[in-house]
Amino acid sequence: MMSRIRPSIVLFGDSITQLGFSAGPSQPGWVSLLSNAYARRADVLNRGFSGYNTHHAIDILPSIFGEDGDGGAIFGGPPLIVTVFFGANDASLPGGKKQHVPIDQYEENIRTIVKSIRATRRLAAKMLSRSFIMNRIKIEPKDKSKPIAPIILITPPPIDKNAWDKYCLDNFGDLSLRTNEAAKSYGDRVKLVASELGCHVVDSFSLLGGNDVGGEKSYGIHLEDGLHLSASGNRLLFEGFMDVVKRELPDLAPMEDGEGKYGTSGIPLEGELWKVLCDERQ
Question: Which of 110, 122, 200, 210 makes the best surface tag, with the fewest CB within 10 Å?
């Protein structure tokens, strides 16, 4: 009998991913919240790179997902879910820092990242069904036709321009020009690519209130410095992420019924429950 190998969830992104373990003292970030939700079910791997744009992301793809067929070996097997969360830096305005990527090139870069991840032979090049990994963890997927390692694209969050400008001047003595309008436009391109390539989307811009009529007064509370997420922003992103998984990928959500182990859907707890082990020793 094949033993269970704990699957992984790979989070590939910029500083909002890298900083996702903590939103401040005693304040868990969205990555920590996700790790807790999948505790004893899947290992959440943070592959966040502060300051990176999609040009940089493409450059380091082989070191994250492998090449020439070794991608699965990097994670001990095909990931359960992969997220791609870039754009906050790409959407910086021309003439500011060197992180700006023109929006058409950004769209093409997101497309390249998705296709490159899928082309890694161990992940999906042969269009293996998700039943492969689900069999490894001893549960059956509801839809065996979908490729393994579904990709969730996350849009850039809104921008509180005044707060971000102040933060940059106070800490760096210079501006890193960003606007909420640019963030939304780049997020729209993410959704376009997701629709084209069959990816799932977590719209962090909308989740944090970027479209609210109140503007920065409404969504600014969810941003620590005008760009990165505060405790409430991290919580909203986590909850939005889990909503997408439960609605669109229910067999990959944490199993909730049957004591989290013997339920009908989702990723079960690894190992026997403690009381079963105690009964066996009596």
Answer: 200
Q: How far is CA 14 from CA 30, 213, 225, 276, in A?
A: 14, 28, 16, 43
Six token digits for residue 12: 């590939």
Active site residues: 15
Contact 41, 267 (CB under 8 A): yes
The whole-number pLDDT of residue 71 equals 53
Contact 37, 254 (CB under 8 A): yes
What is the DSSP pairing of strand 151-154 with strand 200-202?
Answer: parallel
Q: What is the DSSP letter of 154?
A: E
Per-residue pLDDT of 54-96, as tens digits, reads: 999 999 999 998 875 455 556 666 789 999 999 999 999 997 6
Nearest to 5 by CA among 116, 135, 127: 135
More confident residue, 32 or 261: 32
pLDDT at 244 over 80: yes
Q: How far is CA 115 from CA 22, 118, 148, 172, in A?
A: 31, 5, 14, 37
Pairwise CA distance, residues 216 & 106, whole Å: 25
Assessment of whether the complete model's pTM goes beyond 0.70:
yes
- Specify the amino acid at residue 93: L
Under a CB-based contact definition with an 8 Å cutoff, are residues 183 and 88 in contact? Answer: yes
H-type alpha helices, the chain: 15-18, 30-37, 54-65, 71-74, 103-119, 131-136, 161-172, 180-197, 204-207, 216-219, 231-248, 274-281
